[in-house]
Fold these 4 entries.
Entry 1:
Amino acid sequence: LFHSDAIVFISHFKGHQLSGFGGAIKNAGMGCACRAGKLVMHYNVNPQVHEEQCIGCMVCATWCQVKAISKKGTKAFIDPEICTGCGLCIDPCPKGAIRIKWDMASSDMQKRMAEYAFGAIKNKKVLFINFVSDITPECDCFPSSDAPIAQDVGIIISNDPVAADRASYDLINEKAGHDVFKHT
């Protein structure tokens, strides 16, 4: 990517657990970041095991791509030095024992993601294509997601990632009659 003159970004616009929604900016920021960059963006959103709920089944460990989860005694343990904060371990836990500590502002991650997106596209010809269909509440990186939270809108194309995401967001909410991405 560093040596390219132009990039076409194709994004599935949908909900996202931390950024509210994901589209062109998230795709450019996360998609073009190296592993270390992804860690920087997720540095303070590492999942934690709530021991009182953990039954030690280790289903979570089968989803961990970086082998950050091990068994300590009879419970799962997530090593914060290894964990990348991807969150893949959260959904499959049968007891809901793995959760993210939400006392940090998601705006911190959003700012870092936007910085990485800017770095990826700076001085390049770019085109952003958002597919605004099958709009589910969670990111595609999760092993599963709920039913769509909004009607399909179509395809948004722009050379400006902010304009592409704003148009996608506005059209979804206009069709729904309310902000479908607001967490209550």
Note: The CA atoms of residues 116 and 155 lie 24 Å apart.
Entry 2:
Amino acid sequence: MRKLKGVTLVEMLIVMVLIGIVTAISLPKLANTTDDLAVRSARQEVGSYLSQARALAIQNGRMGRFIRSGNTIRIALDNASGQTIVLASQDLGVGNGVTLVASPSDTVAFDPRGVLTSDASASSPKVLISRNGIADSVCVVGRGKVSISQCQLAQ
């Protein structure tokens, strides 16, 4: 009698059921992790754009601005004739699937010394980033320091 090698249909079904159970358990956690990573990535981008707006203001001796319009962020710099020129733009709604909300204003302006303008320094500018219930924020604290770690969501 010859010995047959291989697997039976029952063994294959058991393996398929186990794979299905493991997948069903892990998918919700994977989705939450994806949302968390998207929010963190967007937070880094917002912080970077705010820091770049401040650095450009200092380097060029002109007003630098961070502008939020919907889920798009921009860096703008005033030129010699007083016009505002957009230097960089990124849509975080498309790239990361996040929603942005800025308070108290959609524009954060830095003077040529890198200090928040008087209208923005009255209350600490903040950008709230959220996606599917996961939220984080970026603040400009003090006279112009960008903070992605010390910003309180309840502020």
Note: The first strand starts at residue 64 and ends at 69.
Entry 3:
Amino acid sequence: ILPLILHYTKSNSWIQLKGTAQGNALVAILVLLFLNPPTMSAPALVLSFLSGFAWPIGMYGQFECYKRLGVARTFPISAGLQIVGNALLGWLILGEWKSGRQIGLGMLGVLIILLGIVVSNVVFPLVKKEEEKTDKKAVLLLVLTTAGYWLYSLLPKLIVDGNPMSEFAPQALGIWFSVDLLVYVVGRQKRRDVMNRDGLVMTAVGTLYGFANIAFLYSISLNGMVKGFLLGQINMII
């Protein structure tokens, strides 16, 4: 429901990004205080941090395109590209597709998803209006920033002694550092323009992402990167 709520907020993409990072960090603090997750090795901490550091790149592209393309167009493109990328990475790097049958069916699924992306974003000439033309620059932004999501999903699966609750806090720290770089350095936003009433509202909304993130980490640890991500994207229907 996060994209739907964002549709009704008046804040810009930078405020949305910063608020989401803060809400996620609040959930991470609750995890540390009340669940006392086990300690991790140094490589595991680094990989979790880098996973979080990559996430805001993908999220910024999504937030920006929610405004420029709309939720109904942005989400299928973003989720579809994530599914395709994660499926191929899961196969080529993690070896989650082993048999020829798995590879064949997996590639068929990828092609169907790509077809779905195209179909869901086509405006037929008979009903095409000037205001309905697709913003090609926004689509390109969405495609390029999706790489951040691929790393976010892949890196936790490279952790040998991984535990979803242990991974969550360093990942949240990576998200925080990356968002600050994007908001204050790339976006050239002033702190007073981001830390305002809209920022507090977005922090509350961002806690939704925090809880969803925990569920996602558990899902990819139990089901593998490809299946875990696919299950999470059932929300595309909403």
Note: Residues 81 and 89 are 12 Å apart (CA to CA).
Entry 4:
Amino acid sequence: MNDLALKAAAAVQERAAPGCALCPVGSLCFATGLTIDQRQHLAGVTEPRLKVRKGEALFNAGDHMRNLYAVRRGSFKTTLVSADGRAQITGFWMSGDVMGLEAISGNRHLCTALAIEDSEVCPLVFSHIERLARHIPALQHRLSCMLSQEIAREYRLRLCMGTLSADERLAAF
């Protein structure tokens, strides 16, 4: 194959290989359990990566939910604000975690996600995920597992908040 043909083949491969297939944290987040062929179908699900500076909000409580967000690098905290203005941290999110699952049922984010450090996320268009999951059982299973993990995390958080002292909660974190 000549140089021109090699360059053309490389360009086609580059366009065909979505971020999830080559992502260094792809094995940790949304694409977990999917084959390479199945991961390539995720190309239409992801939008261009977003950079979020330390202290900035990725989304705010009450915002319309369009995407889930896979943390590519950096970290976030999610907070809820009570009626009297007190903020409560509801979670910490690191590379490989997917944020925004709480907004699926009501189509609005329940919390605010703030970058703890300069971070980068991969927006995952939820309507595309739903459509694709109808055709890829492994993707539907992965989505179900993510929702189940979120429920289990909430149960552990309730247990921690209700039964442990402040020092024990810190140690558990």
Note: Strands lie at 50-52, 57-59, 67-73, 76-81, 87-93, 98-99, 112-115, 119-125.
